[in-house]
Inverse folding.
């Protein structure tokens, strides 16, 4: 009997091995799929523009966002020196929108990032260990889930007081339960797959399996869900600022600007609506992008 | 009584075309089937056997483009509208699937589902339909049929669900029964029950039957004729005893040689080298060429045609194992 | 199941044997007549919880299973849904903790001061059924294999070498397949990676749970040939679980038949397949599909469906479908007993002195 195991069968016959081009790792495939989706590309560009202009606001903004001028109040857009006009205190709208982007985006993204880290950890732990651990964690999470998010944010802000930092905390708390839920669901699914059983069969410890096998497979869906939450976060944080529970004047923030420009809506409607348009653009772009991410992750290359 | 074939397929081709793919899944399939005959489409995954069968009832996804002609009970199915197809699916041809839970609606009882089908196709009253449902359940040998009429699908075991699905398929008295691997997911003792049931029902009701399977044993148990499919084409057709006993096409021979059976114990299996074909990247010549032990240069010149190799036997091969001259 | 923090490195590479050497395996402890696996009284019940979490009933998945696995053999395990064969596999691998029973590996009991779970895993591995879920979709073939090696303390460089060697052993060219993802491989190739993962730790026993069931027949043949070669070269013992009776017949030396959580028959493959003693075994094998169109199965060998393991029948669990059932079968549960040389069955009809009328006839005829 020959000493060699039949090797030729699968690899050496040129046509026999299925000719697939190396599609590479998971994230590369996802990126490729998103790139091909025109709508997602547009959203990415829009978001990139907003983000970059917000980050580079000090260099890009034409004027000082805090400089008031009582004679130049509520100038309409396309006025000389003021492309987007001025607000009710004579401050340049464009500059305020750019600087406001920093606060609004930060207040939208940071709570989601924090909530993903905390909620994700809770959900993955609950999903992997199941039974009692799962019950303990998820029932506590459910208690928080029972509150409507906006009301909970308002209530927390009321308890903790107004201010950017406090509204950040309340938003994070609002988002932890839904992310934990999604993380638990996905982890439970992954936990029951054969490859996790195989990993357990090698004698690996639970943390090792979670990090090396489970995480890679659950981050996709969790991140998709989280990215869809950013759009909500932007809206809620703007809402909090609108209610006076978030950023305080004279800080530029889209939600706050909506509030202060409220009275001007009959006099200078375009100016009053501009901050809302920014909120809309950012929020919808995040939403559509996360949709595209979700379909990209469903595709089996 | 006219003995027109129940199924007449000529040059059937199916192409899947959408943004992500463009695959010729079935190419140039032709056959006909008379009442009471059982044809088995035998092949592995990717051979196109399921798609061929589903094309007969136009049960393919939107991105499937069907070419060629399909006639069921004399009617041309390829050009029918959806409304016209509704009159075909059920009364003319009915299908049973591998997984009964996908064919049975989980929120309705078995009795309701069968009765409603009968009402909508035959226009009788619900009470009459229910009476007939009971007869059908008894025909498929479901014990305590009266009680089972009011059972939900999840309350039945796998074998009983499969029988219920068969009853549903037979409810409109079809002349053609299409079976898509109905026993693959069943335990051995249940599988033989279902196969024998289908065989006896088919004989009793005189239905033409097409059975899709990858299991040679299933073909041996139920089929009169077998058509072996590879990469979307028929590579061999003939009487089941002929094809299994003396295969003409090297693929059929390879399939038989690599199938585990009682006498193969302890021996190395004669496996077919290589792997299943990639439909997106088929060779210009014979699709089986790269894996064929009898391959020679002429095989790459073009796709061989289906030629007779005996009485009522055809093979798509330039060097078949059985020659026409050997016809008995 | 904790990863015992004991960083002793794996020192042994694959000890490939030429087929005609008869040197003993250095890991062998008891000699060829000692079973490599000895299972006694294995039991696992799964609780069924009611709406408030209270336990209503139990699924008696595995209920008092005894058998031995001899060194170098392939023990086939057959049975239908609900028989407990997959649960038994997971109990052997300690992926599930048994409720009762003992498993002894080459003379050393597992747990209780004998072999640790970690050592068990070095000696016994499992090959799963191919599906997209048997390999981590985010890992390349190499990453999947090196995971287990790293768990047992191998350095990453050495683990990669071992992984590539495993791939070569299963017939996959490492230069092509080392960095491929599961979705870039065909079913047969994925299953080979499954096998490579199983042998990478150089175990003595491989449990193959429906390992070829999801493959096309032509690919199945290739993998079966591969498994036969590996068994010879790596001096492995196989426990081969499958619902496919033909495949089990092809690969096994002895066969274990399970029904509703119990072993009903155990014996050499030819005896079981040709002259089974237990009525269930006979019915099961009579259900095999014929490979000859001229000789078809006539009557149904066994009516009804495999019953529910939640409330099994009293006494003999098969009696509700058995054509030979008598009064004693409902009262006394038959015990797996020797009925011939190396052949055991759990049926009153074939065990002398059981009280069954057929057993009396056998005793009288003897």
């Amino acid at each position: 009997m020959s000493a060699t195991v039949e090797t030729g069968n699968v690899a050496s016959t040129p046509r026999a091995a299925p000719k697939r081009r190396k599609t590479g790792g998971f994230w590369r495939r996802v990126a490729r799929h998103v790139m091909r989706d025109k709508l997602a590309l547009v959203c990415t560009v829009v978001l990139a523009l907003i983000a970059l202009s917000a980050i580079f606001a000090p260099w890009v903004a034409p004027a000082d966002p805090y400089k008031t001028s009582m004679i130049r109040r509520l100038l309409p857009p396309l006025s000389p020196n003021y492309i987007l006009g001025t607000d009710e205190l004579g401050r340049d709208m464009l500059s305020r929108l750019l600087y406001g982007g920093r606060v609004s985006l930060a207040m939208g993204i940071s709570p989601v990032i924090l909530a993903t880290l905390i909620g994700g950890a809770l959900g993955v732990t609950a999903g992997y260990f199941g039974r009692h651990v799962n019950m303990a964690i998820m029932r506590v999470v459910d208690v928080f889930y029972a509150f409507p998010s906006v009301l909970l944010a308002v209530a927390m802000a009321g308890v903790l007081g107004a201010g950017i930092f406090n509204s950040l905390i309340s938003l994070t708390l609002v988002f932890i339960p839904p992310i934990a839920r999604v993380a638990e669901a996905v982890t439970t699914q992954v936990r029951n797959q054969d490859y996790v059983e195989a990993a357990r069969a090698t004698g690996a410890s639970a943390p090792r399996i979670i990090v090396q096998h489970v995480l890679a497979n659950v981050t996709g869906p969790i991140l998709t869900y989280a990215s869809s939450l950013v759009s909500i976060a932007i809206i809620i944080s703007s809402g909090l600022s609108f209610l006076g529970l978030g950023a305080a004047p004279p800080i530029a923030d889209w939600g706050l600007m909506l509030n202060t420009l409220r009275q001007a809506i009959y006099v200078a409607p375009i100016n009053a609506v501009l901050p809302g348009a920014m909120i809309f653009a950012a929020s919808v772009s995040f939403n559509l992008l996360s949709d595209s991410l979700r379909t990209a992750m469903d595709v089996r290359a | 009584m006219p003995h027109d074939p129940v199924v007449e397929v000529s040059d059937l081709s199916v192409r899947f075309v959408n943004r992500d793919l463009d695959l010729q899944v079935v190419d140039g399939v032709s056959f006909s089937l008379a009442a009471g005959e059982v044809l088995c489409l035998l092949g592995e995954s990717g051979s196109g056997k399921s798609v061929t069968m589903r094309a007969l009832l136009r049960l393919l996804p939107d991105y499937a483009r069907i070419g060629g002609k399909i006639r069921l009970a004399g009617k041309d199915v390829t050009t029918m509208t959806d409304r016209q197809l509704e009159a075909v699916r059920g009364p003319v041809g009915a299908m049973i699937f591998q997984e009964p839970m996908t064919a049975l609606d989980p929120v309705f009882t078995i009795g309701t589902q069968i009765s409603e089908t009968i009402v909508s196709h035959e226009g009788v009253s619900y009470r009459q339909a229910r009476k007939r449902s009971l007869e059908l359940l008894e025909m498929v040998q479901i014990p305590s049929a009266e009680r089972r009429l009011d059972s939900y699908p999840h309350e039945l075991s796998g074998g009983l669900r499969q029988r219920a699905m068969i009853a549903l398929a037979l409810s409109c008295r079809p002349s053609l029964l299409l079976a898509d691997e109905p026993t693959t997911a069943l335990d051995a003792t249940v599988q033989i029950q279902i196969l024998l049931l289908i065989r006896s029902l088919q004989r009793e009701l005189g239905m033409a039957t097409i059975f899709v399977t990858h299991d040679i044993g299933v073909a041996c148990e139920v089929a009169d004729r077998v058509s072996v499919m590879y990469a979307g084409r028929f590579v061999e057709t003939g009487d089941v005893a002929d094809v299994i006993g003396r295969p003409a096409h090297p693929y059929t021979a390879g399939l038989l040689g690599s199938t585990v059976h009682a006498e193969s114990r302890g021996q190395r299996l004669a496996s077919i080298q290589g792997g299943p074909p990639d439909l997106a990247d088929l060779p210009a010549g014979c699709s089986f060429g790269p894996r064929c032990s009898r391959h020679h240069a002429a095989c790459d010149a073009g796709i061989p045609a289906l030629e007779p190799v005996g009485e009522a036997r055809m093979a798509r091969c330039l060097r078949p194992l059985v020659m026409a001259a050997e016809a008995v | 199941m904790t990863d015992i923090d004991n960083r002793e490195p794996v020192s042994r590479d694959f000890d490939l044997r030429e087929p005609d050497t008869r040197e003993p395996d250095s890991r062998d402890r008891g000699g060829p007549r000692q079973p490599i696996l000895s299972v006694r009284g294995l039991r696992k019940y799964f609780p069924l919880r009611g709406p408030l979490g209270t336990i209503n009933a139990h699924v008696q998945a595995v209920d008092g299973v005894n058998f031995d696995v001899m060194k170098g053999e392939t023990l086939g395990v057959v049975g239908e849904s609900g028989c407990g064969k997959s649960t038994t596999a997971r109990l052997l691998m300690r992926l599930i903790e048994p409720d009762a029973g003992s498993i002894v590996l080459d003379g050393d009991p597992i747990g209780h001061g004998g072999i640790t779970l970690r050592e068990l895993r070095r000696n016994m591995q499992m090959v799963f059924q191919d599906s997209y879920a048997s390999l981590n979709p985010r890992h390349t073939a190499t990453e999947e294999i090196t995971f287990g090696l790293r768990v047992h303390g191998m350095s990453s460089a050495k683990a990669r070498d071992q992984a590539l060697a495993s791939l070569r052993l299963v017939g996959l060219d490492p230069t092509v397949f080392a960095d491929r993802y599961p979705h870039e491989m065909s079913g047969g190739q994925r299953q080979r990676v499954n096998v490579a993962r199983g042998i990478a730790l150089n175990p003595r026993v491989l449990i193959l749970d429906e390992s070829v069931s999801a493959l096309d027949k032509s690919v199945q043949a290739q993998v079966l040939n591969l498994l036969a070669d590996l068994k010879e070269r790596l001096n492995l013992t196989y426990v081969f679980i499958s619902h496919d009776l033909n495949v089990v017949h092809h690969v096994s030396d002895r066969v274990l038949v399970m029904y509703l959580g119990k072993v009903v028959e155990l014996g050499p493959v030819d005896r079981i397949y040709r002259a089974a003693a237990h009525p269930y075994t006979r019915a099961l094998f009579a259900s095999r599909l014929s490979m000859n169109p001229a000789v078809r199965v006539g009557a149904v060998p066994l009516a009804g469906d495999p019953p529910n393991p939640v409330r099994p029948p009293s006494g003999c669990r098969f009696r509700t479908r058995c054509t030979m059932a008598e009064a004693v079968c409902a009262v006394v549960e038959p015990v797996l007993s020797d009925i011939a040389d190396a052949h055991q069955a759990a049926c009153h009809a074939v065990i002398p002195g059981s009280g069954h009328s057929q057993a009396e006839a056998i005793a009288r005829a003897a």
